[in-house]
Design a protein that fits this description.
- The chain is an alpha/beta fold and 369 residues long.
- It has 16 helices and eight strands.
- Strands 1-2-4-3-5-6-7-8 form an eight-stranded mixed beta sheet, with helices on both faces.
- 40% of the residues are buried.
Length: 369
């Protein structure tokens, strides 16, 4: 009897191992199928490639490092838009591609993946301290590549979150290259923003009686975190993002399904090779502790950039506590520019261009262009 049970147990273990191996093989094969590094063309009514359209994945050496970008648009005669993603280290093409497709009817859009991120991730790119000045230089190099490639004297520059901090620094130093600057979830004063976010979370968690998250949060002394020269710890930033996400004040107002809306679209993104997906994950982790974050934490745009010489447009969700709505509005009010507009999004948090794409595109078409 014991021998029979041992044999049966061995068969069950073997079946489990074989099944697990088969599932793992199936997942790997599926992931490889989803990771071809391929971009679909725009087609006309006859099924042929739409004349003048652009749909390509390009890798260009920028300041000595090969960097990737996805360039899409229905007409190469449209104005060019350079999109600067957030993070740093978090390319946003995959999250945005099904929401803001109308951008590509209006612009030729360049979704550049910054050094150390996604398609531009290499060990060399993250092997040394990256400074804000280097990121500005990279952005100008990409800008000049696009200006030359599409024979346009000036292009539009749009930044989201960290990209808004980078973008406005670039636009104020090189206004001759840009028609206008568009900031989404505009960063102004990170330390003051983090303080406001922390105080809001403590107050809200107490009101909800959420002792577990309150205890985790108050284990950190926010005044100590923001009043030092060092980076804000990545563990705190991850906790802050997690809590704000639950409260509806983080990346989105309506928290998405982490599997259906975030992980699965990323895994299925045929635009990325397997190496690019690895780079996306590694770049996201690196960015939390990257030295570039120190530049972001120390600069107060209200003091250092009080004026800009090109038109400025800010887009901000009223539920955004990841980057303070109040500080962004205060900065906008004091900023001197030849033309400026601030757009409130009443159903969004930190990503109004994804959460309210119809209104976002209506503003682009009717107000900006």
């Amino acid at each position: 009897m014991k021998r029979y049970l041992r044999k049966r147990s061995s068969r069950m273990i073997l079946m489990i191992l074989v099944t697990a191996g088969a599932l793992m093989l199936f997942f790997i094969c599926t992931l490889l199928f989803w990771s071809q590094g391929r971009l679909e063309n725009y087609l006309n009514h006859d099924g042929d490639v739409l004349k003048g359209s652009v749909s390509e994945i390009t890798r260009v050496k920028i300041n000595g490092i090969k960097q990737g970008m996805i360039i899409k648009g229905k007409s190469d005669q449209n104005p060019v838009l350079l999109f600067l993603h957030g993070g740093p280290g978090n390319p946003e093409y995959v999250l945005a591609k099904n929401q803001v497709t109308e951008l590509e009817e209006t612009f030729t859009v360049c979704w550049w993946e910054q050094r150390g991120s996604g398609m531009s991730y290499t060990s060399a790119a993250v092997s040394k301290n990256v400074t804000l000045e280097e990121m500005i230089s990279d952005t100008v190099e990409v800008t000049n590549y696009l200006r030359k490639r599409f024979d346009q004297d000036k292009i539009y520059i749009m930044g989201h979150s960290w990209g808004s901090f980078l973008g406005i620094n670039v636009a104020v130093k090189y206004p001759e290259f840009y028609t206008a600057y568009l900031g989404i979830g505009q960063v102004t004063n990170l330390k003051a923003s983090e303080k406001l976010s922390y105080d809001y979370m403590v107050k809200t968690l107490r009101a909800r009686g959420d002792e577990k998250d309150l205890k985790r949060l108050t284990a950190y002394d926010i005044d100590d975190l923001i009043n030092t020269e060092r980076n804000i710890p990545e563990k705190y930033l991850m906790l802050r993002s997690q809590i704000l996400g639950k409260l509806g004040n983080g990346l989105y107002h309506k928290p998405p399904s982490q599997f259906k809306d975030v992980l699965l679209p990323f895994l299925q993104a045929s635009e990325y090779r397997l190496a690019d997906k690895y780079g996306y994950l590694m770049g996201s982790l690196y960015a939390l502790s990257a030295p570039i974050s120190k530049d972001l934490a120390q600069m107060n745009l209200m003091v250092e950039i009080p004026e800009i010489t090109i038109p400025v447009y800010f887009f901000h969700g009223k539920y955004d506590r990841q980057v303070s709505y109040e500080l962004s509005k205060d900065y906008f009010d004091m900023l001197t520019a030849p033309e400026k507009h601030f757009y409130n999004f009443d159903h969004s948090a930190h990503s109004p261009f994804i959460e309210e794409p119809e209104r976002f595109m209506k503003i682009i078409r009717e107000d900006i262009l």
